[in-house]
Structure formats: C-alpha cells, structure tokens
Design a protein that fits this description.
Distance between the termini: 10 Å
Structural class: alpha+beta
Order of helices and strands: HEEEEEHEHHHEEEHHHHHEEHEE
CATH topology of the largest domain: Ribosomal Protein S5, domain 2
Strand content: 15-25%
Number of domains: 2
Radius of gyration: 21 Å
Largest sheet: 6 strands, mixed
Shape: globular
CATH class of the largest domain: Alpha Beta
Helix content: 40-55%
Bound molecules: alpha-D-galactopyranose
Strand order of the largest sheet: 5-4-6-3-1-13
Length: 370
C-alpha cells in the first residue's frame, strides 16, 4: 500500500495501524441534520487512508500524499493550517486522552465535489487514534468527535451527517440517521438489482459564499424554531400553522426543512416496499425545495438537474451543502449515456467547464486496513 511506503520513508518505521474512511453522497434529507431531522446518505467508493503510529512526546508529524513537500511537525495545534487542520483538530479535541502521532494520509475523494473529503480525513484519523490509544469509542462517538473537530477547531458549523456517514455506512446500504436521537439504521440500497444507478455529476463549480451562507441558514432555522416555541424545526407538526407565524426567509427555510423530513421518510417507505424506481419524484421535489425555499442551489446545479431529467433520468437533485459541488441523478442503466450527453451539452452550450461524472455505489464506512 503506497501510504504505508510513504509513512515508512518519511518516519523510518512501519505504521502501527492503517484506517480508511470514505466520503459520502446524500440520497435525501438536505439541511435537516442541524435541525434535529432525518438524513439518508451513503458512503462513496473514495475516501482517505490514514497510516498512523502513536508518539509519546506530544508532537504531531503529518504528511499528505496529495500535498507537496516534507511532513509538517506541530508542537501546538494552532500551528496547523489548510487541510492539516482537519487531522490536527481531531487530536486537539481528544486533548489529554492522546499524546502525539505520526500520520501519513492518502486520499482519492474528488476535491471540491462536495463529497465530504474533510469528514473522511477526520474519521480516518479519529478511528486510528481510537484504536492506538485504546479509547473504546463507538463509531457514532468517533463521528461526534470528528464533527466537534470541524465545528470548534476548523470553525465550520456543520451538522453530524457527513461524519456519521463516513463512520457508520455499510456496503450496499444507505444510512438512515435520526439526527436528534442519533439512532441509525442501514437500509439496503440495491439499485443495480432494479437496473438503476446513481450518477454523481460534479459541477466543478464552487461558490465562495458557501460557508457564510451555511452559517446563515443555520441561524435562520434556529431563529424560526425559537419563534415557534420548539427546540428545533424537527418538532414542527402543524406546518400550515407554523407558516402563519413566520415571514420572509424564515418561513421559506421552515417549509423546506419540514417537507424534507417527510421526503426522507417517504423515500425510505418506497425502498422498504421494494420500489426504488419510484423515488425519482422525491428527489426532484427535494431539489425544487432546496432551490426555491432554502436557496442553496446554483445555476450549475440547476442545469445539471434539468438536463439530467431531459436526458432520461428518473429523478435528480443537488446533494450536500449546495452553492456548487455535486448533483445526483437516478438513472436506468440504459439511459446513462443519454443523461451524460444531455448534461455535457447543456454545459457546453453555456460555455461552462465540462462536468465530471462519477458512478456512486454504496460503499463501506470506516474500516481498518492493516
Ligand atoms: C454539509 C454539512 C452537513 C449537512 C449538509 C447539508 O455537507 O457538512 O452537516 O448540513 O451540508 O445537508
């Protein structure tokens, strides 16, 4: 394994453990996690592999095969910058529970595609440290720790979905997660048996406002919940009544979150009933709600969705935080080429950079490789 070789040549010994953690796409349940709601992501075949050994001197040495140059050595967590913050953040959150570590990282999550390469990095490092320092953390505790690293150390106020997906997913399954109770279930997702596949369309477009707008959406949801006298928008049971009490953006955000939670439950119902061919309409309505009520889509995502549907997809939506990144399309195998051609043509017509197509098969969550 090349990450083991990189570790050996940088640090002069074999790593004591090697863990792999994947990125994710979300089938449905977008911007619901931090509203205590429901999500249904699955792990993608790409991820981050971390080769790790403990150190007794509180130092952290860190190298990434995707970054040039010598390994970084940190004595203080705050010295970490860029991608290194996601790994060092995990050590910072663990604090006294761990001492130092030598870490080599190799990743193949397509960058900037919104497939949670950062969660994969956090969860791979956290899983390795959990083993090496005998912390006895469950996969969900590893996810929570990783989320805390991202919230408190990196400063991105994300919910729990990405890290939970990376830690808990199972091959051939999507992960149904109740983001309040943190109860989860692996739901079989054998689309191939129905002649279907999920195509990821990476728009290759990234909008700078993503982080600021994300924090703003969270604040709007929290403010709406306060006005409605509930702990979180998850608790709204009378949507019509709630909408009468709200105005403007908060009204729209509430409409999205409440209906999106219903869509997650409806989609799971269809999967359970063995009718995955029928989930397309739910994907489409999720997209429209994200575009019009939650306002986190982008022209590139909208065109990817519309052109997929014109090309014969059974359903499509943006996935992840929005403002760029990827869309997913549910496509019958025989329509795959048609969908790709339709999206490529629509992008070319507008003079946009060509999108990237990635086949998404539901893969395994974090696992020890060596
Ligand atoms: C990002 C965040 C997640 C989630 C999604 C939107 O991926 O990291 O916690 O909020 O956006 O569903």
């Amino acid at each position: 394994m090349r990450v083991v070789e990189a570790f050996r040549s940088a640090f002069g010994a074999d790593p004591e453990t090697v863990w792999h953690a994947p990125g994710r796409v979300n089938l449905i349940g977008e911007h619901t996690d931090y509203n205590d709601g429901f999500v249904l992501p699955f792990a993608v075949p790409w991820g981050v592999t971390a080769a790790v050994s403990p150190r007794q001197d509180n130092r952290i040495r860190l190298l990434s095969m995707q970054a040039e140059g010598e390994p970084f050595t940190f004595r203080e967590y705050e010295e970490a910058t860029g991608w290194a913050r996601y790994a060092v953040g995990v050590l910072a959150v663990l604090g006294d529970r761990v001492r130092g570590a030598d870490i080599a990282i190799d990743g193949d999550v397509p960058q900037g595609a919104g497939l949670s390469s950062s969660a994969a990095l956090e969860v791979s490092v956290a899983s390795a440290l959990n083993e090496l320092y005998g912390l006895g953390l469950t996969p969900m505790e590893i996810a929570l720790l990783s989320q805390k690293a991202e919230n408190d150390f990196v400063g991105m106020p994300c919910g729990i979905m990405d890290q939970a997906a990376s830690a808990l997913c199972r091959e051939g399954h999507a992960l149904f997660l109740d983001c309040r109770s943190l109860g989860s279930r692996n739901i079989p997702l054998d689309l191939a048996a129905h002649g279907l596949s999920i195509l990821i369309i990476d728009t290759q477009a990234h909008h700078e406002l993503a982080d600021g707008e994300y924090a703003k959406r969270r604040a709007e949801c929290e403010s709406a919940a306060r006005k409605l006298g509930v702990d979180a928008l998850r608790d709204v049971t009378d949507l019509a009544g709630a909408l009468e009490l709200l105005h403007g953006d908060e009204r729209k955000r509430t409409m999205h979150v409440v209906t999106e939670n219903h869509r997650v439950e409806a989609l799971i119902g269809l999967l359970r009933a063995g009718k995955p061919t029928e989930i397309g309409l739910l994907l489409n309505s999720s997209h429209l709600s994200l575009r019009d009520q939650y306002e986190v889509s982008s022209p590139e995502l909208d065109v990817a969705v519309e052109a997929s549907l014109r090309g014969g997809a059974r359903g499509a939506r943006m996935t992840g935080g929005g403002f760029g990144g990827s869309a997913i399309a549910l496509v019958a195998e025989e329509r795959l080429d048609g969908v790709k051609e339709s999206v490529s043509a629509a992008y070319a017509e507008r003079g946009w950079q060509a999108p990237r197509f990635l086949p998404a098969t539901p893969s395994s969550g974090a696992r020890r490789l060596v």
